[in-house]
Design goal:
Layout (H helix, E strand, L loop, with lengths): L1 H7 L1 E4 L5 H21 L1 H6 L3 E3 L9 H11 L2 H10 L5 E9 L20 H7 L5 E7 L3 E6 L10 H7 L15 E5 L4 E5 L4 E3 L6 E8 L3 H4 L10 H6 L4 H17 L2
Antiparallel strand pairs: 1-7, 2-3, 3-9, 4-7, 4-9, 5-6, 5-8
Length: 259
């Protein structure tokens, strides 16, 4: 399976999360979503399709935060993470994906780095360091459309035209190279942030994404301190390596820059 990921840039593990654990994750995500929507009402009503920082203190109580930390730091999940990512996988962020309020809003092809990188930098990013999504759909959903292999290869001409809306093309147009991956509640979808992909809206989707990255300062700088567990929770986790890596790199970075 790891060979499949290296070749295609994604993997699906069916029925990865047990129903009891899934229900608790769903309840925590719903609490976060209700609070987040109140604070971001205009953005939510306008165009939002995802939120972030679920493990921060802002929208969840400590009980729900601890639940998320224990899932992320579970031996079962971290075994998968470690098998797919070389070196020392490092916790980066959490996201919640949902349907846009506007039913006419189109989904769009993209690579995650395109929003803060030039074309040349996007090409360079294909060589690493890596960011990988580990997505758990909390309800059955239409899933994601992916273009296999694009985590390692650059866009074909029509893919680039659509993704960047060049030469009269739009980023919501269909691409013949895309493959739809339908997801059921409790599955685990692993995919590279570098690959060309788009969410498929519908079915009141609600997916929890956990992002891990290679242990490099240029990526760990995006990690919010408030999203990391305190020492008590850290010691209670089955596998806290990804959190510890983020904390160590951020601590060293601050020491180097006198922050």
């Amino acid at each position: 399976m790891i060979k499949d990921y290296e070749e295609n840039g994604y993997l699906v593990f069916k029925d990865f999360v047990r129903e009891g654990d899934l229900q608790r994750l769903r309840e925590a995500a719903t609490q976060f979503h209700q609070s987040w929507k109140q604070e971001n009402a205009q953005f939510y009503a306008g165009k939002a399709i995802n939120s972030a920082y679920l493990t921060a203190k802002k929208h969840l109580k400590n009980t729900e935060r601890e639940l998320l930390f224990k899932f992320i730091g579970s031996a079962k999940l971290m075994d998968v993470v470690a098998s797919i990512m070389d070196g020392r996988p490092t916790f980066m962020n959490t996201q919640l994906f949902f349907d846009p309020v506007n039913e006419g809003q189109k989904n769009y092809w993209h690579r995650d780095p395109q929003y803060h990188m030039s074309i040349d930098e996007q090409k360079q990013a294909l060589l690493g360091p890596n960011v990988v999504h580990f997505r758990v759909p909390l309800v059955d959903e239409p899933g994601v459309e992916l273009i296999p292999g694009t985590h390692k290869r650059w866009d074909k001409d029509d893919e680039l035209d659509v993704r960047l809306e060049r030469n009269g093309r739009k980023n919501h147009e269909n691409l013949s190279t895309g493959i739809k991956v339908k997801l059921d509640a409790g599955d685990l979808l692993v995919f590279s942030a570098n690959m060309i992909h788009r969410g498929v809206y519908g079915m009141d989707r609600m997916s929890l994404d956990i992002l891990f990255c290679d242990p490099v300062p240029e990526l760990v700088k995006f990690v919010d301190d408030d999203c990391l567990p305190d020492s008590d929770i850290l010691e209670s986790l089955e596998n806290a390596d990804a959190f510890k890596s983020a904390i160590e790199i951020k601590t060293n970075n601050k020491a180097m820059h006198g922050a």
